[in-house]
Amino acid sequence: MRQIPLMFPIIVNKFAQHNNLKKDMLHAIETQEAVENLVGPNNNIYKCDWESARFDPNREWLKIFQPSLNQHLIDWKDNFGYDNFVIHEIWFQQYDTNSKHTWHVHGANFTNVYYLDLPEGSPKTEYVNPVTKQLHEFDVSEGDIITFPSWLIHRAPINLGKEIKTIISWNMDVTLTDFYGD
């Protein structure tokens, strides 16, 4: 086997409406029906609504987030030359003390993580460079949205802090019709 080293896109940008929406979104998540203490093979997620990710567009936090997210993604896809985007699943996850989400990948073209609440000392998402096999931490801060290829192996390391970290994640495909022409 021969590897051809390629650069792959990892995009970090600020969510413009973060300061305006954070409080309302966290309140809606607090009252959202969700799975608590989702414990599985090497996972320990405090709270998430993955079960609703595909089927419930009426979640209160999503109603708050969706209009601004749509505008953010329209600007994003225009910047990179894509025609359109389709979100397949969108969910929140919360990590309290000792919570984690082990190594995994997603479906679709891109995975996105919005750091809605990232208290000081909270761990940031880590990934493995597929060529060098080296471990890296995404350079992000609260209010950032990071977009990366869904096949990138990543995890949420153990939260050793005392405060809850909250992220919103979604998987999306993009479409492209005629980037370079015939």
How does the overall form come out from the CA principal axes?
globular
Count of discrete alpha- or pi-helical segments spanning 4 or more residues:
2
CATH architecture: Sandwich
For this structure, the CATH topology is Jelly Rolls
Total beta-strand segments: 11
Straight-line N-to-C gap:
32 Å
Q: Biggest sheet, in brief? A: 7 strands, antiparallel
Strand order, sheet with most strands: 1-9-6-11-4-3-2
Uncertain runs are none
- CATH class group: Mainly Beta
CATH homologous superfamily title = q2cbj1_9rhob like domain
Computed structural class: alpha+beta
**Secondary structure: helix percent:** 10-25%
Strand content: 35-45%
* Count of all domains: 1
Task: Name the features.
about 180 residues, alpha+beta, four-stranded antiparallel sheet, about 20% helix, Jelly Rolls
Annotate the secondary structure layout.
Elements: E1 11-14, H1 18-31, E2 35-40, E3 43-48, H2 60-80, E4 84-95, E5 101-104, E6 110-117, E7 126-128, E8 135-137, E9 144-149, E10 154-156, E11 165-175
Antiparallel strand pairs: 1-9, 2-3, 3-4, 4-11, 5-10, 6-9, 6-11, 7-8, 7-10
Helix pairs in contact: 1-2
